[in-house]
Amino acid sequence: MTERFVVIMAGGRGERFWPQSRLHKPKHLLPIVGRDPMLSQTIARVLPLVPAKNILIITTRQQLAEVRKASAGLPRRNLIVEPVGRDTAPAVGLAMLLVKQRNPEAVFAVLPADHVIQDEAGFRTLLDAAFQAAGSADELVTLGIEPTEPATGFGYIERGKVWHSGPPAVLRARRFVEKPSLAKARAYLASGRFCWNAGMFVWRVPVIAAALRAHAPGLHAGLLGLEKALRRGSPDRALARLYPALPRISIDYAVMEKSRNVLVLPARFGWDDVGSWPAVERHHGKDADGNVLRGRAIVEGGRNNIVVSADGHITAVLGLDDLIVVHTPDATLVCPKDRAQDIKLLLLRLAADPALKQHL
Amino acid sequence: MTERFVVIMAGGRGERFWPQSRLHKPKHLLPIVGRDPMLSQTIARVLPLVPAKNILIITTRQQLAEVRKASAGLPRRNLIVEPVGRDTAPAVGLAMLLVKQRNPEAVFAVLPADHVIQDEAGFRTLLDAAFQAAGSADELVTLGIEPTEPATGFGYIERGKVWHSGPPAVLRARRFVEKPSLAKARAYLASGRFCWNAGMFVWRVPVIAAALRAHAPGLHAGLLGLEKALRRGSPDRALARLYPALPRISIDYAVMEKSRNVLVLPARFGWDDVGSWPAVERHHGKDADGNVLRGRAIVEGGRNNIVVSADGHITAVLGLDDLIVVHTPDATLVCPKDRAQDIKLLLLRLAADPALKQHL
Fold it and tell me: What does the buried/exposed string (b/e) look like for A85-121 if buried means 16 or more CB atoms within 10 Å of the residue's CB?
């Protein structure tokens, strides 16, 4: 069997869950859902399929200390620091180089670090099938999430003909499309032919290398230079020198939208990317008034609030509905659920003020 | 000149400013307005008129430690602990006994500990005139606040004929009336004949003693017993034994509404009892959006909020108007300004829960 690797992308910026998430502690380092950090849950989820020595994590300098804590079972050298964020295609390229150093013929999965997956066994069955498909063919393989609503926050993947009847079924992907309008999203959902693109890919080193060479030649050339430098000396120094020069581009745009050899495995394993505070609600019990209360939180005469209170501090909400109230030891947020996407406006204020920057 | 005393009533329960105020630290022990605790401001305000040795404070066991800190210039023995709250008439009776022990002919003022007074010199001019009137006649004297709005949260005092033309003018009080309906409050304001009852009284010991004997004989009899016990031994023990048996009744109802020998000095010295969080607004600067911000507080896209944040913690409000958000080291409150009077509902929840009681 082709040797298998998993590369976990753990470099998010942690804006949407402020103040629980921070620059040095974004969502994948928090137990937003469940008891352990999302990254630890992601590692535990793949360990039955792939040995710890073959699980790599790409993260940032700021997050390294916390990533170490959340990935205690992995060899230290499997934690790779991206010197700067350069979007997903350079990160995938770096993942490819790292796997190639270990085994140039290996098959590897690229997985986000911060998703919720309820049916872990179902996930592994599908990932195993994806490894088999990618390991045995010159195909770019992706897990596509069966949509449950006309979401406009994800890209979509249109399915084509059956490639392998399964189970689980493996289909040709006809095309990748970017985040749609609501009207388009509704049409996609109604057609029954689309999956959400959740950023979960599986491919062999030579196959993704060929795809990068064909569709993103600038990036591919940069990766060749980086590969040479990595062979010669310190990875940190090579990355610091060459990684920032790679083009900032997403893997969807650089490769997936342009490739014809793409397979998709439609997935129904209770997936949720938990993109912001309001999404947290789906994963927690509510009181009789629809409030999600974590820690020492109380709501009097209010409905459908999310109230999170840390470290024995009490956070009390009186006579208000549909709010997000999150207390942490050094920062508290109060905002309506439907303004959660504007938390970044607050963070711009903090970033602009030397006295407040420490709370980012 | 008749010897003068001031007795400051410092026993409030601190519900309306939770979580800044607590059972052991109610409003008069906080710098709700200004830099010093309201009690310290009250003491400083009368010190030019009355020596420290003649300023007494009646407080509670829970608040004693903080009251000591806030009244550093006063002799320790001038701090008297009410073993239980028994409303204002027993407290006035106790004040009378304490002053009588020192000088049975003295004149004394009863003042709340937690009011804001902007024109301190004007206040002293009026209090001095009240001391003169009460010291020279068998009258119960009160300072009545010239109303600025049809408030329904105060009792009112109707003025009668001129007793002394002044300045400042001293008038007969025709009657004390309890907190009115809004319609009545409007009529009182329009008539120009009413003042607010702010609980500020001045009288000689024999005059208030006679009024209590005449109008509240049960309370008066209890006070006679307490007086004897105080003469015999430890004040704490005497109070613990006899004070709880005194009838629970207000001085307004027990004496002021029934007495004919009442004088009132109409006051215009920028008075505010700062009864709840919304009242705090009047005393603080606002940002361009009408927000009152204290400590490390920011509001993004919101208007007319009061946001208070303690100890370097940042409290950030996004996209919300007309809220009270108060952070303290162990508790945070979020409520609309127009629900401030219902903070007590929250406190009942805390009181009922052994795990949360500590936050009261």
Answer: ebbbbbbbbbbbbbbbeeeeebbbbbbbbbbbbeeee
Separation between Cα atoms, residue B142 and residue B110, nearest integer Å: 9
- Report CA torsion sign: B220, B225, B229, B235: negative
d(CA A275, CA A280): 8
Residue A343 · residue A16 · CB < 8 Å: yes
ipTM of the prediction greater than 0.90, yes or no: no
**CB-based contact A318 B309, cutoff 8 Å:** no
Note the helical H segments in chain A: 38-46, 64-70, 88-102, 120-136, 182-191, 205-215, 217-232, 235-242, 251, 277-280, 343-352
> Which residues 257-316 on chain B approach chain A with CB closer than 8 angstroms?
296, 298, 300-301, 309, 312-316
**The two structure tokens encoding residue A225:** 């230079």
Q: Is the pTM of this model over 0.90?
A: no
As a whole number of Å, the end-to-end CA separation of chain A is: 46
pLDDT tens by residue, A297-306:
999 999 999 9
Q: A315 to chain B nearest CA, in Å? A: 5
In three-state secondary structure terms, B117 is strand
Q: Which domains does chain A have, with CATH numbers?
A: 4-272 (3.90.550.10), 277-359 (no CATH)
Span B239-252, pLDDT tens digits: 999 999 999 999 99
